[in-house]
């Protein structure tokens, strides 16, 4: 529900920009998307690492350890966000050049990027830490309230106050700030919980920091790899197909974000269940959760593929009146949709190992999929032309999913890879569980 809501925002935000500001601004915002992906990668790193530690500690009956893990996750993210935001603002011009922003797209890309970077501290509400203790409703609330605020602010700032791409950026940061406010209240003030974060928990703790970063780093590398792939695809499409291909990819990227968000939601919903039950040594539940999650992400991906194949024309037509861009985007979306049935497999398998506290297989999937599959396929396909470049995306999904499945079979273990016996653990003091 939560990530589906964000998918709706990604789609409506794109529509507001393309219709309220123009296609040039829409392309410019998409060129800056890698900056959002970097911030998202950092928040996912500390979120996944922190959530794994929190769920394990709660499952083991150690609320103080959970509080320290959550507090250290906050500190790591805040420090990284300040560093990324500051450096990004200082190096904005060379950064825009690397991202491919030139000509008419450079000015709106700069405006959007500066506001997003200045608001980097609001890039996460730590909903993953909320889910780690089983509070699914509040985790959803953090997303929904934030997204509703963004959807309200976008038309107000873009159309009402005529702020253009600045309005879209302020709308994004404003909604995120609401999410941060809710999370601060939840973790530091709310009483009806297994733990609360105190000042002592914000003090950096070496072993906790090392474990947090170790478990979360595969997510960061995966997010960084996605950033690289997105930036590389923009550059290659601009070189091969010009502005039409770049505009088409921008439209497909937003629709794809909307379509694939539920697969991310399945992965995020699985993690606290895996971590908590692994912490309690319930390997049979770990295995069952993994199997159900894999089935769900594959079935949903197949359904999304079918819908996009049938509705590609109307969907892409909602974002542009240019027939050339519309046709190119519709054709591209149909090709990209072929990879959707397997698009969630690698992410889910990596998240599964992270939830178990086993970082090495996640590193292998995250790094291997980018360095060994996605980037080489993009570069090779670009030698044959635009059509082959589009086709490299679903091929990459197939190869990556197959590799992740092999890693799961070899390293997951018959009982799902939980490092615990299969029999039920002794009863522990009752805490709120997923």
Walk me through the structure.
- The protein is mainly α and 434 residues long.
- It is built from 14 helices and no strands.
- The protein has helices spanning 2-20, 23-59, 63-90, 92-99, 106-118, 127-132, 136-160, 164-188, 206-279, 283-317, 323-337, 345-355, 359-382, 386-411.
- Helix 5 (106-118) packs parallel to helix 8 (164-188).
- The longest helix has 74 residues, at 206-279.
Tags for this entry?
disordered C terminus; globular; single chain; mainly alpha; 434 residues; 14 helices
| Low-confidence sequence ranges | 413-434
Largest sheet: none
What is the CA-atom radius of gyration, in angstroms? 21 Å
Query: What is the overall shape?
Result: globular
**Number of extended strands:** 0
What is the rounded distance between the termini? 16 Å
Mean pLDDT: 80
Category by helix and strand content: mainly alpha
Strand content: under 5%
Number of helices: 14
Helix content: over 70%
Helix and strand element order: HHHHHHHHHHHHHH
Give a quick precis of the structure.
The chain is an all-alpha fold and 434 residues long. It is built from 14 helices and no strands.
Record the SSE blueprint:
Blueprint: H1 2-20, H2 23-59, H3 63-90, H4 92-99, H5 106-118, H6 127-132, H7 136-160, H8 164-188, H9 206-279, H10 283-317, H11 323-337, H12 345-355, H13 359-382, H14 386-411
């Amino acid at each position: 529900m939560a990530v589906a809501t964000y998918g709706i925002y990604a789609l409506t935000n794109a529509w507001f920009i393309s219709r309220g500001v123009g296609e040039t601004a829409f392309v410019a915002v998409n060129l800056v998307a890698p900056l959002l992906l970097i911030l998202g990668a950092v928040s996912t790193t500390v979120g996944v690492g922190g959530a794994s530690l929190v769920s394990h500690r709660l499952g083991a009956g150690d609320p103080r350890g959970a509080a320290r893990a959550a507090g250290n996750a906050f500190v790591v993210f805040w420090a990284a966000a300040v560093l990324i935001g500051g450096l990004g603002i200082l190096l904005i011009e060379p950064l825009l050049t690397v991202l491919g922003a030139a000509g008419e797209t450079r000015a709106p890309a700069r405006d959007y990027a500066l506001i997003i970077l200045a608001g980097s501290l609001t890039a996460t509400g730590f909903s993953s830490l909320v889910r780690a203790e089983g509070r699914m409703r509040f985790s959803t609330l953090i997303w929904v309230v934030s997204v509703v605020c963004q959807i309200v602010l976008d038309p107000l700032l873009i159309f009402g106050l005529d702020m253009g791409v600045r309005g879209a950026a302020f709308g994004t940061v404003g909604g995120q700030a609401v999410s941060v406010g809710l999370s601060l209240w939840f973790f530091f003030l709310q009483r009806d919980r297994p733990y609360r974060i105190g000042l002592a928990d914000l003090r950096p703790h070496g072993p906790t920091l090392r474990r947090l970063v170790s478990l979360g780093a595969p997510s960061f590398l995966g997010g960084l790899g996605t950033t690289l792939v997105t930036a590389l695809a923009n550059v290659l499409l601009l070189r091969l197909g010009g502005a039409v291909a770049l505009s088409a990819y921008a439209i497909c990227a937003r629709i794809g974000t909307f379509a694939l968000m539920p697969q991310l939601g399945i992965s995020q919903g699985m993690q606290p269940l895996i971590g908590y039950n692994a912490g309690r040594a319930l390997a049979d539940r770990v295995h069952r959760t993994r199997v159900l999650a894999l089935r769900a992400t594959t079935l949903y991906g197949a359904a999304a593929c079918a819908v996009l194949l049938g509705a590609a024309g109307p969907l892409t037509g909602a974002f542009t009146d240019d027939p050339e861009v519309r046709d190119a985007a519709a054709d591209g979306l149909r090709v990209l949709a072929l990879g959707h049935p397997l698009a969630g497999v690698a992410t889910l398998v990596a998240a599964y190992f992270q939830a178990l506290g086993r970082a090495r297989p996640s590193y292998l999937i995250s790094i291997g999929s980018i360095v060994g599959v996605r980037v080489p396929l993009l570069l090779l396909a670009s030698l044959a032309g635009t059509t082959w470049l589009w086709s490299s995306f679903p091929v990459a999904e197939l190869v990556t999913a197959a590799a992740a499945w092999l890693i799961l079979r070899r390293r997951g273990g018959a009982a799902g890879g939980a490092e615990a016996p299969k029999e039920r653990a002794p009863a522990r003091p009752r805490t709120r569980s997923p």
